[in-house]
Specification:
globular, eight-stranded antiparallel sheet, 0% helix, single chain
């Protein structure tokens, strides 16, 4: 069973569960732009890697946080759930809930792109 850090200790995290992985993980949130996806409950997510190159993926609402519902005409700023990997200076290796179209499920971002919610 996997757990993620929350403000009040550790809690179970279903969103990023992977077979064979055990122990505690640090759950954080990565800045992104969110727009509607092709299916109900699915959203298109765009973000930036450490080198300002873009990445994109589809994600479910449970893996996202945003303040207003995005529309085709109005994508919104939001956050996608991530699990932190090892830091290296001001860079972090993070695991997304789903693979990106360009780079797979693990990407490198700047520390200033990541936050607690």
């Amino acid at each position: 069973m996997r757990f993620a850090a929350s403000a009040f200790g550790f809690r179970e995290s279903n969103a990023l569960r992977k077979p064979g992985r055990k122990g505690f993980v640090m759950e954080k949130w990565l800045d992104c732009i969110i727009s509607p996806g092709q299916f109900t409950g699915e959203y298109a997510v765009r973000g930036n890697l450490f080198n300002d190159r873009g990445f994109s993926l589809f994600a479910e609402k449970e893996d996202l946080d945003f303040t207003e519902e995005p529309t085709l005409d109005n994508p919104v700023q939001g956050w996608i759930r991530i699990v932190l990997g090892p830091p290296k200076g001001d860079l972090l290796l993070v695991t997304l809930p789903h693979p990106t179209f360009e780079n797979g499920q693990t990407i490198t971002v700047k520390t200033n792109q990541v936050r607690d919610l």
